[in-house]
Specification:
Helix content: 10-25%
Strand content: 15-25%
Structural class: alpha+beta
Order of helices and strands: EEHHHEEEHEEEHEEE
Oligomer: single chain
Distance between the termini: 20 Å
Radius of gyration: 16 Å
Strand order of the largest sheet: 5-9-7-8
Shape: globular
Length: 183
């Protein structure tokens, strides 16, 4: 059973195929058409995809990423900064973090929200995974709110998860037991 204390979130891929979320590196090999669409959001930060994660023995592109912040809180922060939200909402997959294999999982605290083309340099605060740490990582940080406000003032579309702690999981994550949430 997924509880708010152990829930982590992943934006629902619009063309999800199969019974698992897979890293971009797997998508590139197995579903190149979906990979091309998924990689488009990284066009200005391709270096982050090849960032080594020695903590997991892989690259960023080999991980599935989850948000620790509830999508309602992200939506509220976006609206407060002056951005809209789709009237029909956005769909998120909700997973129980307690089901993730700890040895294949780390937490990227993502404290650096300074604007940069390539976020690879900001990925220095990676810590061991524990569900006990999640309750400290649930709020939209002041830095994220400032980033959103700055992007609104500049008239630029923000990245939704800048400054939001990420759960990095090496390899695929089964959809079994996940729930769909529309916000």
């Amino acid at each position: 059973m997924i509880t708010r204390a152990t829930a982590v979130y992943h934006l629902h891929p619009s063309e999800l195929r199969g019974d698992a979320l897979v890293p971009l590196s797997t998508l590139e090999r197995t579903q190149p058409d979906l990979y091309e669409r998924a990689i488009a959001k990284y066009r200005n930060r391709l270096g982050s995809l090849r960032r080594p994660l020695p903590e997991l023995g892989c690259l960023w592109v080999d991980c599935v990423q989850f948000s620790t912040v509830h999508p309602e809180d992200l939506r509220d922060a976006m609206i407060a900064a002056g951005f809209g939200w789709p009237a029909r909402g956005r769909q998120f997959l909700v997973f129980d973090a307690a089901r993730l294999e700890a040895s294949a999982t780390r937490i990227w605290l993502h404290r650096d929200t300074s604007p940069r083309e390539d976020m690879a340099a900001a990925m220095t605060d990676i810590v061991p995974f524990s569900t006990d740490r999640l309750h400290h990582l649930r709020a939209v940080a002041d830095g994220t709110r400032a980033y959103l406000t700055e992007m609104a003032q500049l008239g630029r579309r923000p990245l939704l998860f800048v400054g939001v702690p990420h759960i990095l999981h090496r390899g695929p994550v089964s959809l079994a037991g996940s729930k769909l949430l529309t916000i």
